[in-house]
Amino acid sequence: MRSRIIASKPSLLHPVTGAAVLFVICLTVSSAAAEPGLVARPSHLGAHLGSPPDELLQCLAVPDTPIHKGYMPLQETCIIQALKQAGLRQRILKVAVAEAVGVRMGLIKLQASDTASGCFRVSDLEADAVAALSAAFDVMPELEHLDLWSVVPGDMASYGQIHQPVFSVAAARADFERLSSTDLPARQLLGKLGAVRYAPLFLSNAADDPMRLACLDNPFPRTAYRAPNAADNWARFAGLAQEGNTETEEPSCVRVLRRGRTDQRNVAITIDDGPHPLIIPLMLAVLDHYDVKATFFVVGHKAEQYPGLVREIAQAGHELGNHTYWHRRMSELPLEEARAELRSCSAVVGALTGQQMYFIRPPGGDYSEASLQAIAESGLTVALWTHNTGDWRKVSPRQIADRALAGIEPGAIILMHDGDLSSVRALKLIIEGLLERNLQPVCLSEIAGNGAAREMSVQAMMNYLDSGWQPAELR
After folding, report:
1. What is the pTM of this model?
2. Of residues 124, 147, 272, 418, which has the active-site annotation?
3. C-alpha distances in angstroms, 409 versus 201, 349, 361, 441?
4. Exactly one of 68, 301, 318, 417 is catalytic; which is it?
5. Any catalytic annotation for residue 276?
6. Which residue from 70, 251, 360, 406 puts its CA 20 to 30 A from 438's CA?
7. Separation of first and last alpha carbons in the chain
8. CA 194 – CA 450 distance, rounded (Å)
9. Residue 323 has what pLDDT?
10. CA nearest 280: which of 152, 149, 435?
11. 309 band by pLDDT with thresholds 50, 70 and 90
12. Which residue ranges form the domains of the chain, and what is each CATH number?
């Protein structure tokens, strides 16, 4: 097994403790077999050399299912017609257009195989991406940003076939127009847009697989993200001892932030479950419009699928928090799995952004003694919340905002999700409501000092969960 140092930043100051920390991210680049008793996450879509397996060629387009999402049907139809005329090799699965604070953005989802032959070619994905971005931006001058992704069939869920992204790119109009005016090949043009995801699953089945053919005359750009999924090395993440941990006894305390400091008129906005194409760019547009910052708790496997969006969040000056890798309830996990959830998410985000995360939000706010031990070992601070917007219930923007603002005081922590347009529209109302109350929306780090984040014993945290913290009810 071979490891590689991805990023190293010495002498950073922890925003909660004030202590100096050494930040080193290490990703394993070879796979390992799952250890007995551990959850094996890779599905039937593991690497298959040679011809793609039949399940990768399964048609994901359901007859009579509309391609447009329905947020802005007329605009979506215009883009669909332009894409059909662009001669794409891949099947069009979904097109969506939406707007926030006067900024219009869109997404395009394709099936990652040649419609006519069923072949997998990296060059097809790249050529289609450039052609699709060009067609969409040309037909709709108001469009400012596009997320494009190609998918293959994933595991079956209760609601049907999961679409597993194997290629993605996020593009701003200004950047694309500037680059497309040059004679750059598709691969280099895409690489200059940001972090383009090439999933090893697709590369291992591609007929023109550059990894195997050693295409030295046309290498992947520096921004290409081709790292194996953390799930491919899950056993290693589960079994690793905490780097630099010399403790011989189980940690008895964990650092927790239940609410922020009250001596300043700041309120933290936190957004869970991303990154999601279209919704995250729209939320970033809203935050930029009001010049405020937020904390995004990202899910590790989604960060791998949409690395460009993770970098957009970081580059805009927002804070990234750990929301585990698979978004499983931590109260249901043994210690090894809890460790793997935290470490793999931190490793992915660190590799993409060079940043260290300081906060962990357990999915649903749920935890156990074992998961608290894993969190304590990681050095992360548990970030809870004071105001749950309930936006995951798909209620109206006004209802979401009312729940966020009810009884709001300095130091409050607002919980949101990047689920759909209701959350985007509610974010605008929440920010305006806070400003009207002379409260400033900020990142968690801005409210975590002055003793707001404190050490609590594991037992006290469990008692708190039983008596004063009811995540199931709040969610």
Report:
1. 0.87
2. 272
3. 48, 32, 21, 12
4. 417
5. no
6. 360
7. 41
8. 38
9. 98
10. 149
11. very high
12. 54-226 (3.30.70.1350), 233-474 (3.20.20.370)
